[in-house]
Write a structure and sequence with these properties.
This protein is mainly α. It contains 12 helices and no strands.
């Protein structure tokens, strides 16, 4: 079995005798099942929801981005049928998992490339949560008040209480925190699916070297524009947009750390120490990693050796 289709005509068995169609059908059904499992409040629903993009990315890794689109279309139809009690369920499925996974899969596999192109997918990890946030602002004009109420309700359920100033800070970054976890979820599922498929020899393309990942030029002005809007207008939506649009540079910084310690002795201990520092001192480490990501974005790459 391989990710490419045979050069001859279609098999006599019809559409679902073709591996890509079987992969799209299986991926769509499994991802929809994960979503429905969580929406119906079944045990381990949170974990199942987190795994929703994994089969979509796996199908894309083996057969390409268009297969991911077919899987998502089927998954959305199944979610619509299975969650009739929640009319917005297909929108949740598409907005959180289906559409970003499809866009990431398609942009990661441009025609003619020998390896995955991760620049635009990395940009989407910052841009897609911002687009979702702007959509919520349009749908819920008083979004900041809704987020404040959600934070207060959560604190009340936990029996906790925060000073008003600290509560304001939590509300300001709540949307950014939700977008961050969505991006990390997509990133982890995408990498896990790629490694899973690649380990079985079915991957269409391999991952690029860590030093070759760079954001596209069109993305670079976006954080600057968002920062200007936040300075001039203020508000939690503008602040969350700034933080989310800086996320790809943060991830580039993390990749840069991995690249720099990959050839050193005690690599595992160094990475464990790095992540412990990140967890304990995130307010300090996050800006440092964003700065490292910006440096790696513009640093000169070594020229390839001349062809003999």
């Amino acid at each position: 079995m391989s990710g490419t289709q045979p050069s001859g005509g279609p098999p006599s068995g019809g559409l679902f005798s073709q591996p890509w169609a079987l992969a799209a059908g299986a991926a769509g059904l499994i991802s929809a099942l994960c979503t429905l499992w969580a929406m119906r409040g079944l045990p381990l629903g949170g974990l199942m929801l987190w795994l929703t993009p994994l089969p979509i990315f796996a199908a894309a890794a083996a057969f390409g981005g268009r297969v991911a689109g077919a899987a998502v279309a089927l998954g959305a139809a199944v979610v619509l049928a299975g969650a009739y009690f929640l009319p917005v369920a297909p929108l949740i499925y598409l907005g959180l998992f289906g559409l970003p996974a499809t866009l990431i899969a398609i942009t990661a596999t441009p025609p003619g490339a020998a390896r995955l192109a991760l620049g635009t997918p990395l940009a989407l990890l910052g841009l897609w949560p911002v687009l979702l946030l702007l959509g919520l602002v349009i749908a819920i004009p008083d979004l900041e008040a809704v987020m404040r109420q959600m934070v207060e309700d959560g604190l009340r359920e936990m029996g906790a209480d925060l000073p008003p100033a600290l509560l304001d800070q939590v509300v300001q970054v709540k949307a950014a925190a939700a977008g961050f976890w969505l991006s990390v979820l997509l990133l982890v599922n995408g990498l896990a699916a790629q490694r899973l498929v690649n380990g079985r020899g079915y991957a269409l393309r391999a991952l690029p070297a860590a030093g070759d990942v760079r954001l596209p030029g069109w993305y670079l002005p976006l954080p600057v524009v968002a920062l200007a809007l936040w300075i001039s207008l203020g508000g939690s939506v503008a602040l969350s947009s700034v933080l989310l649009l800086l996320l790809p540079f943060f991830l580039l910084g993390v990749v840069g750390v991995h690249r720099r310690v990959s050839q050193r002795a005690g690599r595992t201990a160094l990475l464990v120490s790095f992540y412990l520092l990140l967890l304990l001192f995130v307010q300090i480490m996050a800006p440092v990693l964003v700065g490292l990501g910006l440096f790696d974005q513009w640093r000169r790459r070594p020229s390839p050796p001349p062809t003999p």
